[in-house]
Amino acid sequence: MEMDRVAFEKDTLSERVADYIRRQILYMDTFRDGDHILETDIAEKLDVSRATVREALKDLETQGIVEIIPRKGTYVAAFDHKDMIEILELRCMCEAYIFETLLAENMLDDQDFAVLEKIIDEMVQVSRSSGEKGLSRSMAFSAKDLEFHGYLWKKSGRRWFCKVLSDNYYRLRLAMMQDLMLESNMEQSAVMHYDILGALKAGNLSDAKAYLRKHILTLHGSEAMI
Known about the structure:
mainly alpha
């Protein structure tokens, strides 16, 4: 198996393995919720040690993507309705704080807005693409969505909030993929980023928060959930 077929952002071997497993769970339909992930299978497929796979799985457990049960093994995490509501609320609260920080400290300039707008343009293009289907399209969209939001998280300089949001993002993606809601609302969600960006440009915190919440709920297909 050639691991370099997947674009990794991490440097260490265990982080690369974690990224590979995460992509198999979130986008490639290799594992479903509740499926047993065998260390030996992953180790053989990627030609790495079981210890490396074990370390990668511990990282994924921290992100809430897998559940490690002592003496039983590792399983893909499953989410119920209450879990989804909690995940959505956590992301809304944390990212709203990021917006408050960015606007209160005037941390965004014209160059930042130009970069963010370009990311949205590319995200909309992906959402409307007829050349890619199903999971590959969802994967490309998710990468752009994370690029947009991740840019804002990092720009705020709030390291621990970035960590919470990054981990929570993967939980949210897993839950959405399990519900099969992502693709149906993809274009609508992509376009909503223009509203978020416009509110941030105008320095309108209340609108930015409202558009953020609407975006997150629409992406899940659950405007009336909360």
